[in-house]
Specification:
The protein has 10 helices and 11 strands. The protein has 375 residues and is α/β, with parallel strands linked by helices. Strands 1-3-6-7-2-8-11-9-10 form a 9-stranded mixed sheet, sandwiched between helices.
Length: 375
């Protein structure tokens, strides 16, 4: 760990994470955290040591000039803080943005959870994006999943039952569960036939779902315009190929049929509430213990408890961070619908950018991926 500044004192913080690589189809997840960091001018206070976690032949450092002086930027994971005063909300945010590590994942998660304990993080939200058989002309599906049965029941989330290969998103979520930190993963489905980054429409969908999850108004900036331009561009490309156009039409029909029961239910209610928030210009208030979505940490955290963080011990490095004392309130919060994990059977070969990721919840029915579950 490299601490760039002292660890700040925060107010009821939520940690939001995204990692480039396998779990970041179309760069939608990493772009969402980058958008938050940029719009709210996050203050970087720490970075993980690149030597510990990255293979520099896989993720190479870059050289750049700063006033004629050559400098090197190493691939790593950085943590920044966004103050409640800057967002108009009642809680701070900790933004974690980096690259999926090449090695020592348990130690990697242990360091991140060490920061979570020190900062008093009440919930971890991990963003991911995957390749799916979804049409680009329809709203981007965003699913929520948790490994915590109590959290799943309280917030009507899908409980993870995935079995199979996973990425750092799935590992970090399980690490949070074993350490007693409420954690939710949000997954955006990116059309597999147009997987090249960026995908501003998927990024916007993740941010909208994040708004609902932590009850916070996120400034959208130019994302809505970029999303419309992206869709128009894909429309034009599809119109030039009759086979692609027919395939998109078949996906639209399947999607519309599947969405009919939901079209008049909670989805419309959520969109209407979001519209009212933006029209009135009022930032969301952080959920409290009396409301669904309260984000207090669970009991049972610590040595000897049911969720002993020794699970996170790296047997090679032998390092385990001491846990924060257990919170007294078992209230937790999130919002979601279906569990997913960024697992791609094509191993990146199905996407022109080499970063293809599929869906672990059995949603992958196209020829490019066949993810079996929902980590």
């Amino acid at each position: 760990m490299i601490e760039l500044e002292g660890v700040p004192e925060l107010i009821d913080p939520v940690m939001i994470c995204a990692f480039e690589g396998w779990n970041d189809a179309g760069d939608a997840a990493s772009s969402a955290v980058a958008h938050l960091d940029r719009e709210w001018k996050g203050e970087v206070f720490a970075a993980l040591d690149a030597e510990d976690y990255y293979d520099f032949q896989v993720n190479r450092p870059t050289v750049w000039l700063d006033g004629g002086v050559r400098k090197i930027t190493w691939p790593t994971t950085r943590l920044s803080v966004v103050r409640a005063a800057d967002t108009g909300a009642s809680r701070d945010l900790v933004l974690v943005r980096g690259i999926e590590p090449s090695m020592r994942w348990r130690s990697f998660c242990n360091e991140l959870l060490g920061f979570a304990h020190e900062l008093g993080v009440e919930m971890v939200v991990i963003l991911g994006s995957l390749l799916g058989d979804t049409p680009h002309t329809r709203p981007v599906p965003v699913s929520g999943v948790t490994s915590d049965p109590d959290l799943a029941r309280t917030l009507d989330l899908e409980e993870s039952r995935y079995e199979g290969p996973t990425g750092i998103v799935g590992i970090l979520q399980e690490a949070c569960t074993h350490a007693g930190v409420p954690a939710v993963s949000l997954w955006a489905a990116v059309p597999h036939y147009v997987s090249q980054p960026p995908n501003p429409k998927a990024t916007l969908a993740l941010l909208n779902r994040l708004e609902d999850l932590i009850d916070l108004r996120v400034p959208q900036g130019e994302l809505p315009e970029d999303a419309r331009a992206w869709q128009l561009g894909v429309d034009q490309l599809a119109a030039e190929d009759s086979e692609v156009a027919e395939y998109v039409q078949s996906l639209e029909e399947a999607r519309d049929t599947a969405d009919l029961p939901e079209a008049s239910g909670e989805a419309i209610a959520r969109e209407f509430e979001r519209y009212l928030r933006r029209r009135d210009g009022q930032p969301g208030q952080a959920p409290g213990p009396e409301r669904p979505g309260g984000l207090a940490a669970e009991p049972g955290l610590g040595e000897g408890g049911p969720r002993d963080p020794s699970y996170l011990r790296d047997t090679a490095g032998g390092r385990t961070r001491p846990p924060r004392p257990p919170a007294q309130t078992p209230d937790e919060g999130a919002d979601g619908a279906a569990g997913t994990e960024g697992d791609d059977a094509s191993d990146g070969k199905g996407a022109p950018d080499g970063k293809g990721r599929g869906k672990d919840d059995g949603g992958g029915r196209d020829g490019s991926q066949d993810g079996p579950g929902d980590d």
